[in-house]
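Aim 2 progress update. The chain analyzed this quarter is reproduced below.
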Amino acid sequence: MKHIKVILSGGGTGGHIFPAVAIANELKKQMPEAEILFVGALGKMEMEKIPAAGYKIIGVPIAGLQRKLTTANFKLPFLLMRSLFQTKKILNDFKPDLVIGTGGYASAPLLRMACYKKIPALIQEQNSYAGITNKMLSKKVQKICVAYEGMERFFPKDKIILSGNPVRQDIQHVAQKKEEAQRFFNLNPSQKTILVIGGSLGAKTINEAVGENLQLIADQGVQLIWQTGKTYISIAKQQTQAFQEKNIYAFDFITRMDLAYAAADVVISRAGASSVSELQIVGKPCVLVPSPNVAEDHQTKNAMALVNKQAALLVKDADASSLLIKESLALLFDEKKQEQLKQNISKMALPHAAHTIVQEILKILS
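Predicted structure tokens:
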């Protein structure tokens, strides 16, 4: 195959950025000579995360539609026109053989312009409920890689590939890292451990529910690894100060998520696409608290895809204060229920997603 050029686009949140990086890494692994460029939204986290991963990115002035009435929405048509003009120039200059979109408004202008110019394109949909951008693009692109069954509700059936969501490679075999994880987090191997993750930015409702119930957790002899995000860490540090000897620890961000998963007996988490895919691969019993502040309530739909297969428990965000810790502790001491959830969530795992997606890319290119 000739020297190929690929543009990847997607962003706004880590859930769109991480799969794009994982696809780029796998593409480089299978085709070291491939030339890769990213296109993202100016001022968003991809402009920092993509260069940190070792790739070049160009930013365009696009923004998402605000669900409440705001003057920012009146600027959108102008931003879209400017973005389309800029992405046309990027496509003309770089001359890609293929364009890949991983969702989010950042990918919309580039993919639309690529389809208009008849450049082959592939999109990756992470959620069980398809986003507006991907639904809009689905009729024009060559392939659509998805993480859930039943996506023909949104996309042309003949274009769908069930690939799963690309996840970080270091979480593939966490069961072998349990002892290392207990040493890393200074935990007692004879006690049970809960891991709390609200996403990289944290989750206010989850944090407040955990903070209010630290005494209950300590009284039950339960250890806690608590990722709070940056905004809550100062409060959490004060709250956990009296419980250090009980092995209750708060972190703004956990760099070794593989060890955090390895140490955990039960996980409390949001239900973003990447988080759910990771939980499927590590096969941990989990209590999901979907964020209500996302487009089309897709986190609830992600969570329900697991709940309907008896692969996870769900606590509504509005009920977190009263129910979250109570339900999580009940699960922690119910080994039969844990085993059922473990077996069912593990069946849903698709651990070779990036490889599957790159195989589809190579088929399109050839």
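Residues 170-347 form a domain with the Rossmann fold fold (CATH 3.40.50.2000). The longest helix spans residues 72-94. These observations will guide the mutagenesis experiments scheduled for the next reporting period.
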